[in-house]
Amino acid sequence: MTAPFLSFLYFPSNHTSTHPIEDDDDYSSISSEEGTNLQSPTIYVAIITRRDGSVKTKYLNPSAVSQHNSIRLLRGRKRAFSASSLFTKKSTLQKKAKHLLLWSKQEEGVSTSLVDNNNNNHHHISAFEALPNEVMIRILMHVDSTDLTYLQQASRKLYTLCHDNHVWYHLFCDKFQRHDVFSHSHDYRKLYREALELHRRWHQGHSQVSYLSKVDSHKDSVYSMAWMMGHDGGMFASASRDRTIKVWQKQGTCMLTRSTPHTGSILSIATSRHIAVTGSSDTTCTVWRLPEWQVMYRFEDHEDSVLSAVILDDHVVATGSRDCTLRIWNAETGHVLHLLRGHREPINAIKRVDAQRLASASGDGTIRIWCIQTGECLHQLQGDIGGLSCLEVVPKGTKYCIWACGLQKNIQIWTLDQVITSKIINSGHTDVLRSIHYSAGRVVTAGYDKVIKVWDVHTAKCTLSFQSGHEGKIFSVLTNHTSIISAGHDRRIMVLDFAKGLSSELM
Predict the structure, then answer these.
(1) What backbone phi and psi angles, to 5 degrees, belong to 221?
(2) 71 pLDDT more than 50
(3) Which pick of 107, 276, 283, 338 has the fewest CB atoms within 10 Å?
C-alpha cells in the first residue's frame, strides 16, 4: 500500500532540491521559451541624505520593481498551475489537499471514516493519515511549502504535523543551504518565512541605510575592512590612512580603536578567529593576536608598500606588495617560507583559493595561481581588461571561479577546471573598480564612481545598483547574507542592512 501512495505524492526532483534559494518556488527561473524575455532588470536605488541627517532610499527606475513583481507573480502562477495537475479539480484548497492524500478518485468514496460523536460530522481519513506520525513527518519533509499549505487544511492531524518544527527545519536548511544544528528554541516555520522575506528584500533592494558614528569615525580615508570571525557577521574591523584600526558592531557602535606601530597608511587588513594582519605603505606587515589586538610580530622584508594580505591559517600569512613580489610568512617567527616572483607590476590583491592554492592579481593584467606548500606558480591567467585592481574567489559546485576587476572598468571571470575558461562582462561602472567581495550567492563590487553593484553569481547579471551613498571614491566593500558595508575616501562607513526587523536567529 505504501508504494502506490508514495508514487502519487509530489516530491521535488533531485535537481530542484540541491539548488539554493534561487530555485525556490517564488523565485525560480522560468525554463520555457519566454524565460529570456522575463529576466529581472537591474534595480537602481539612490541613497539620499535629508537636511536633518536622516537617510532614505529612492528607486530611480520604479518600473523595474513593478516588472520584477510581475515576473514573480507569473512564476508563482506557473508553479501553482503545475502543482494543480496533482489534484482532481475541486473548488477549494481543502478538497485539493484531500485528493493529494488519496490514491485515486475511485478510492475516495471507500476511504475509512470516523464519526465525531459530538457533532455527528463525518471526516474522511486517507491512507496517509493511518501511517505512524514519525513516517508522516519523514514524508512531509520532502513536500515543498506550497503543498504544505494545501495539506494542513485537510484535517486537524495534518494541520499539526504540517507545523512540526522538524519539517520546517528540514525545509529551511534545504532551501536556504543552511547547516544549522537543530534547536528546539527556534521556530523554523517563522525562520523560513523571514528568510523568504530577506531574499525578497535582496531582489528588490529594500535595505535600511545608516552611517556609523561620526564621533568615533576615522580621521582620514578608510582603505580596507574585514569581518571579525566568530561574531555571526555582526562585527568588522576597518583600517585607515590615519594609521588606526577600529572594530565596529554593524549597528554602529565602535567597540575598539587601536593605534598601530605603522608609520604609514594601513592599506590592507585580514582577520581570522585568532589573529589579524595589516599591511602598510611603510613597507611593513603587522600580525596581531585577537581578541586583545596585541602585536605578535612585524615583517619588514618587503621593499615597497604592502597592498594586500591574507591569512592562510593561524600560523601562516601571505602578503602582496608594490615591489611585485608575494611573500608567505610564518606568523609566529617572521620567517619567510616562500618568496614568489613573476609579476611585473604591483600585486594589488591576493586571495586564498583552497587549502593548496593562492591567487594573486597584478597591475600587469595577469592572475597567477600559486602552490602554497612549494611556492610554485601553477597557472598564469592573462587578463583582457587592463591592469587588475582586485579579485575574489567564488565557489561554483566543486569548482572555483575567479572574478577580477580592472582599470578598464570591466569584470573578467575565470572558471578553474581541467580546461580554464574565461568571459568578460560589462560592469556598468564608470571608473576604476577598487573592491569586490562574495557571500551567499552574490558578488558585490564598488569603486571610484561611488556606486555599489550586486551581482548574481549564477547568471553574472547585475541585480542591484546603489547610487550616491558616498561623497568620494569607495575603497572597500564587504557583504554577507544580510548586509553590505562600504567605506572610502569620505571617511564614512555605510551599512545597507537587508535584515532590519527580522529575527536575529537569521544571522
Answers:
(1) -55, 145
(2) yes
(3) 107
